[in-house]
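Tutorial sheet, problem 5. The four components below are modelled jointly, 212 residues in total.
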Amino acid sequence: MSMDAVFRALADPTRRQLLDSLHDRNGQTLNALCERTDMTRQAVTKHLAILEEANVITTVRNGREKEHYLNSVPINEIAERWIGKFERGRLTALSDLKKRLEREEP
Amino acid sequence: MSMDAVFRALADPTRRQLLDSLHDRNGQTLNALCERTDMTRQAVTKHLAILEEANVITTVRNGREKEHYLNSVPINEIAERWIGKFERGRLTALSDLKKRLEREEP
DNA sequence: TTAATATGCAACCAAATGGTTGCATGTCAA
DNA sequence: TTGACATGCAACCATTTGGTTGCATATTAA
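Model answer (structure tokens):
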């Protein structure tokens, strides 16, 4: 569940589309997910494997079917640990700009 | 400045390292950024081009030097428009779990 | 002006990536 | 049990990616 795996998993538009699909209806099977795309089942399988490897989705075996569930924890970790860092940087920059403006037009 | 370009730009660990370097010291030149890695200048140039293409960094030409500045806007947009969506989903899931627990142990 | 410095451009290469087809395995239902 | 259905595995292919080397251009400083 390395951060790099999550970034790489999110890098592909098809995989983000799969996540969107699961967000729309959680717990879909492989075939259900396939019906929403125009590629082969095997291609979807590979993408799902990458998403599962990154721990972005979790699967539950149910007889001959396999249900796929979103796991938003890694995405939130990225948001908090990595993106948040740059967000704070931006807020600081904005704050600095504000102070500068206040100084320049009293 | 498509969202896909930003995701792809963030997918590579080397590029995230470059962003980290700029977060540490904003406005570095190409050579300055090179000194913090172990690859060739040309490789760094390519990565910077991808980051610039995704609008994650902005450059300012200064004589024969080129300064690189972070632009956190696209990253924040991703955080708000895309990651936020899954975060809300998670909160809802937690809320549902809470309600279920409340029902099960009165 | 000339030498050193900072960056840009292009060709080339190995490896990773995204996708396909074909076949195998496992499970449900008649 | 047998056929239909859901998924898994493996080989293969084209393109992209990350990186290199070599040379070109532009700017600063002596």
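Marking note: Residues 29-31, 41-42, 45, 63-66 of chain B lie near DNA strand C (CB under 10 Å from a C1'). Full credit if you identified this.
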